[in-house]
Amino acid sequence: MDSVPRLSSGFPLVARKAEVDRLRAALERARSGTAGAVLISGDAGVGKSRLMAETAEMSRASGAVVLMGRCVDISAAGFPYLPFSEIVDQIRAHDPELLARRPVLSTLVSTGVADPVRVGAPVPASGAGSSGGEDAAARAHMFDQLQLFDAVLGALSDLSEDACVLLQIEDLHWSDPSSRDLLSFLLSRLSSQRLLVVASYRSDDLHRRHPLRRLLAELVRLPSVERLDLQPFGQDDAETFVRTLSEGEVPGDVVVDIARRSEGNAFFAEELLAARSTSDAEIPTVLADVLLTRVEQLSPVAQRVVRVASVSGRWHVRHSTLHAVMDLDAGELEAALREALQHNILVPGVEDAYTFRHALLREAIYADLLPGERVRLHATYAQWLAKQNLTGIAAALAYHSTRANDLPAALAASVQAAGDAKRKGAFGAMLQHLERALELWDVVDDAEGRAGVSEFTLTCKAAHAAVSAGYPERAVAYMRTAIGLADAQNDPIVSADTRRQFATTLLGNGVWTEAEQVISDAWELIKDSPPSVERAWVLAVRARLSVVDAQRRAFAEAAESDARASGAASAEADALISQAFCENRENRPEKSAELLERARTRAEEAGALDVELRARYNLIVGRHEQGKLDTAAAIADDAAHRASTLGLSWSTYGLQIRWMRAMVHYARGDWDSAAEAATLPGEPVSDAIFALLAACGATVQVARGQFEQAALELRRLRSEWTRNEDEQIAVLAGTAGAELACWQGSPEEAVAIVDEAMATIRACSGEEWPMSGIRFAALGLQAQADRVRKVTAAGDDAADATLMETGARFLETAEQTATLGDPRGGELGPEGRAWLVRARAEYARLCGTDDAAGWQAVIDAFGYGEVYQQAIARWRLAEVHIAADRRDDAAAELQQALSDAKRLGARPLEDAVRSLARRARIPLPGTPVTSADVLTPRERSVLALAAQGHTNRKIGEELFISEKTVSVHLSRVMSKLGAASRTEAVALAYQRGLLDEQS
User: Fold this and answer.
1) pLDDT class of 10 with cuts at 50, 70, 90
2) I want to staple 353 with a disulfide (CB 3.0 to 4.6 A). Which of 349, 735, 834, 848 is the partner?
3) What's the CA gap between 580 and 735, in Å, rounded?
4) Which residue intervals define the domain HTH luxR-type in the entry (predicted)?
């Protein structure tokens, strides 16, 4: 998808494009004279009504007649033919004469609902014992019913002669027998009418004996009928849905949690979002009422069984477990479970287990329990588990013991569960168990005896788990506590090593200044001690934090020496990485790579996972800086796989590997891999992780033209620019924001973003000439050159002079950064040199002096593998050739730029290339010479007024058309241009030359 698709009402229609396309195709077939029907099934709240609303809107926009009826719960109103009475009402309003020609339809008008005796009552059974009078009554009823059915079909057929007809019926699961009979009659007689019937029903309401089941089995055998099973969103689409609904105002971990709990159900997600519900105990009232209604239909025994099952706390509960914790005999339990299965409360799971159809249903049932009832049931579960001689039950025992207020048992089980989770590489679960243990520590007598471990050790483990699970901020908090506990032991070695761990944790959060102070304090505590594992590690971290090259090398070599003397293989590997950094700074990249490979191997042998990932990350960065993008990508792919295998994808270096993998693939033009690497976590992690990956993802989104998604993320990211001393979020988000503003025709905004980003980066890094300044300067010059075009056309010479001064400032920044900056490799690498050449070419374009040689130099400079930047330069080179009337040369560059843009999926660049070719009358594949066959004159007029900021009502007044017609025209324009909003449609129209600058 190019952007988040939306219903005509503006509601996001995530992951429903395929379903909409199927309905659109069915509508087209009906319009051409092939009648058909689509039966839409899905759970309550999954999005059936919105899909039908979109179908109705599409139909109206194409001139079709839309008729809509809805069934209601028979227990509330048992009227026969209720949906069809609503439809006949609408037919009467649309064409009164048509109803007059078929008087039998008057029995279905809602003001006089069909006579249940004449056309709605069940037909008496004939046979032995029935009187002749009953037979005659039955025959009369059947004749009247046939007349009615023929009249409905005839009315619809008559309507379809003038226009295509869409007939929609919602909630067939509540339909009465007469309505089902009439629907069956209509669908069995579909042929050449211009008619499409769309009906929906809840699949989760269709228990085994539901009367609709038999009808569906008959209907789906008809050649004109197709089924459309609407599935819940997957986790990724559910997150996009929630994020779009919240307009970026909800933290990333809350978005993930709501998407997970909703299980892809749109209604559930909406209600959870509206209530900002973030825990199992917080079910919005409206949602709880909907969920519990079905439970209340069960017998008392069945309700009791599902209440007990809800306490299990897991996604499934075994039959044997329920039997063990309930005082029901086997027959009673089986009957109750069968009833819960028939009502779709429970569904069969693996082996002898049952699961709730929706996790939120379990939550709602659980939340409805009385407090005392809940505690009693948890205690029953805990007592049963404690008697089982099974492995892997510590987590369940800890959960039930905590909820049953048996805190000593909960503490012991939580510590054991944390160990189980660590062995599985499940660091998020490990953290949860450790946090529960620490919460219980002060309220349990002899906590250390119960836990079998000290509070200090638990706290350090919690910090490690937090880092590994993607919660670096929480790790910092735990390490602050650990330092106090360590100092209380009066052991300088323990205190020094704890401070070393704290410094490492601070580094993971980008807090360099405090980390330097903490490691200095650690050194003072341990410097006079003999070589040891702890001393080697303190020296190794000192090497990481040293900003002076000579000191870094000295500390790294001393750390290696201490590590070998004490057998600290992990510290030795870490010291080798710092030495590799020094080699790279001295422009010996191959020596650096050799040391990093040694470090990786040594760390892997020692089981030092974090150190191993640090080595892999530095290998990626080194090859990237050399311009060896393919090599860097291969290392990054392997490293990301390794981190995932270890369960460390969200650890400090697991995350660094992930974002570098995204950027390397982006640079080399594999944008699918880049987008995959930048995919937001499908599990709760810290906001810092969400921010970094979202910034990576926004870069790809902008280049692909997914402007709405990118803008949403960038607005949310703005508050994250100054999160810590690591400026990477500001670099990525600032770059994406400036490029987005340029593509959307807002160069002024791009310049403001560049200035703000550079100021933020200088403040965060403490560097006067950060290396990212070269790229930002080039982007600023690009924006200034675009602005000059506008003011020159307007004849504003004063503004033009101001823009030139700002441009000169940007060029000076690029040149001085290249000279005075401190590149990681000791000298400016291929990427830095290429952006410097680009900055010079953009400055020449700003001054109106750019030439073919300048842009060819940019193409050559990015020749190490950045295809996208080369394609942009070819586009600019083609402009120069066109201005010099070198049309053949321009055509060659445009052809190559177009080919690269299409391969990359760079839609904005592709549009710009086609627009330039169109204006220059240079034919390109798939590029029309004029825009006449893209938009109609009326559509262009409507879009031109929309570009001026007019509302639909104002546009309608200007063009003497209705507001609704304006909306239809804009919908068609957005569809033609592939835009998700009117703003994007205007921007795309300018890029493609469909609107001139004066519009």
Assistant:
1) very low
2) 349
3) 30
4) 928-993
Whether the CA torsion 46, 48, 54, 58 is positive or negative: it is positive
Residue entry with tokens 């599935």: 231
- 3-class DSSP string for 542-567: HHHHCCCHHHHHHHHHHHHHHHHHHC
Round to whole Å and give the CA distance between 360 and 356: 9
Q: Give the pLDDT score at 260.
A: 83
Compute the chain's Rg from CA coordinates: 34
Give me the pLDDT at residue 120, please. 41
Question: Taking 60 as the threshold, does the pLDDT of residue 9 lie above it?
Answer: no
Instruction: Name the nearest CA neighbour of 148 among 196, 183, 174.
Output: 183
Q: How large is the average pLDDT for residues 248-264? A: 80
| Tokens describing residue 616 | 């892999």
Task: Specify the pLDDT at position 792.
Answer: 65
Q: Do domains 17-229 and 608-685 have the same CATH topology?
A: no
Q: Write down the pTM of the prediction.
A: 0.73
- 17-229: CATH topology is Rossmann fold (3.40.50)
Question: From CA 322, how far away is CA 310, in angstroms rounded?
Answer: 11
Mean pLDDT of the chain: 87
Please enumerate, as own/partner, the contacts of 282-288 that have beta carbons within 8 Å and a separation of 24 or more.
283/360, 283/363, 283/364, 283/367, 287/360, 287/364, 288/364, 288/367, 288/368
Check if CATH label 2.40.440 holds for domain 608-685. Answer: no
Q: What sign has the CA pseudo-torsion 616, 622, 625, 629?
A: negative
**What is d(CA 399, CA 378) in angstroms, rounded to the nearest whole number?**
9
For the segment(s) 699-919, the CATH number from 3.30.519, 1.10.260, 1.25.40, 3.40.50 is: 1.25.40
How distant, in Å, are the alpha carbons of 92, 482, 489, 662 from that of 455? 78, 9, 12, 40
Does 279 score more than 60 pLDDT? no
DSSP character for 199? E
Q: What is the rounded distance in angstroms from the CA atom of residue 325 to the CA atom of residue 836?
A: 72
CA distances from 953 to 96, 116, 956, 964 (A): 31, 47, 5, 9
pLDDT at 796 over 60: no
Determine the average pLDDT of the residues in 270-279: 72
Q: Stretch 141-149: mean pLDDT, rounded?
A: 74
pLDDT of residue 889: 95
Domain 937-991: give its CATH architecture.
Orthogonal Bundle (1.10)
